[in-house]
Amino acid sequence: MSRRVLVAPLDWGLGHATRCIPIIRVLLARGCTVFLAGSGTSLQLLKTEFPQLTAFTLTGYRPRYPAHGSMVLAMAGQLPRFMRAIRREHGETQLLVRTHSIDLVIADNRYGCYTPGVPCILITHQSNILMPSGFGWLAPWVRRLNVYFMKKFSVCWVPDDPGGLLSGELLGFGTTLGGLVPYEFTGVLSRFQGGDAGIRYDIVAVCSGPEPQRSIFEDLITEQLGRSGLSYVIVRGAAGGEREHVLGLLTSTELERLMKSARIILARSGYSTLMDLAALGKPAILVPTPGQTEQEYLARRLKEKGIAYSVAQDQFDLGTALEASKHYSGFAGVENHGRLESVIGHWV
Predict the structure, then answer these.
(1) Do 159 and 216 have their domain in common?
(2) pLDDT confidence of 338, banded at 50, 70, 90?
(3) Quick check: 77 pLDDT over 90?
(4) Which of 73, 196, 326, 332 sits at 20 to 30 Å (Cα–Cα) from 59?
(5) Residues 36 and 168 both lie in one domain
């Protein structure tokens, strides 16, 4: 009998949705009936990738990121709204499970997508949430809240290799979590596959993440690329706004083909973006979203390891970045050798 699986990614940017794509592909290949649930552009992306699947709308988190000022204070001010969203999506998930006889729930960072009596899996790479400078005193309280919600799930899937290829200090399993939460490594989750392609562009720039920082980044690189004399394409990561050298939302196949054709990728240092770069084995220039501690940590870590040059957004200069990037190795292509299929096989 076909297993009925609900897949629900968070709506903070597109990364939570993109890394669900290889999971959905494996589930479909195993004959599962897959349902999608979510909100915003992340749900729209999955509906575009899998138009044959039934999709449901969940309560959106709709985080508001500041153009300036403290990210921590901005997020703290929205915490009551986020908690309400978690309670609402919990009720919505329970209703979907009952109404559609769901056998398994896979939630990417949606902490309310669990229900008793049905196996529920939480995908997360950030069990140890890092605090920015000056806010370290909050870490124990944030960790306690994080563990409280993670323990609602049957298991956590970590999108990384067991050695922590990308995640580094973001992982707390077996250390800061003290074995409190069961977990499995899925390997690097990317919708892309490595392989050679003819170079067509000097740079492909990929904008991602929530507003207003996505638009600020787009405006910055558009101005500098426009006067660079280089061949380039900017992928906005948002619907509309297409013009010469600028594209909107692309399918996975379109974006993979485009990124493979670039000499170097200019992008944010979001975790899912890094997994895609690792899968493609591409060199990159990373510009973390200002105030996002996770992205700043990942960019700094890869720079220290000599893999990718990174620079703060307010210090970004294209010419300087291109010259500096010559001294970095770029990503080596990674293969999971069936790890994801094996992990999913435990549950379906």
Answers:
(1) no
(2) confident
(3) no
(4) 73
(5) yes
| pLDDT average, residue stretch 215-237 | 95
- Rounded to the nearest 5 percent, the helix, strand and coil shares of the chain are 40, 15, 45
331 in any annotated domain = no
Q: Phi first, then psi: what are they for 241, rounded to 5°?
A: 80, 10
pLDDT score for 70: 66
Instruction: Judge residue 69's burial from the number of C-beta atoms within 10 Å of its C-beta, 0-12 exposed, 13-18 middle, 19 or more buried.
Output: exposed
DSSP 8-state secondary structure symbol assigned to residue 170: G
For residue range 123-143, list pLDDT tens digits in order: 998 877 776 666 666 677 777
DSSP for 259-304? HHTEEEEEE---HHHHHHHHHHT--EEE-PPTT-HHHHHHHHHHHH
Q: How far apart are CA 49 and CA 45, in angstroms?
A: 6
Same domain? 211 vs 184: no
pLDDT, residue 174, reads: 57
- pLDDT averaged over every residue in the chain: 89
d(CA 240, CA 220): 18
Enclosing domain of residue 262: 201-325
Sign of CA dihedral 207, 284, 291, 122: positive
Q: Domain of 44: which CATH number?
A: 3.40.50.2000
- Give the number of domains in the chain: 2
Token pair of 276 as six digits: 């895609």
Yes or no: say if 211 and 62 are a contact pair by the CB < 8 Å rule.
Answer: no
Whether 179 and 66 share a structural domain: yes
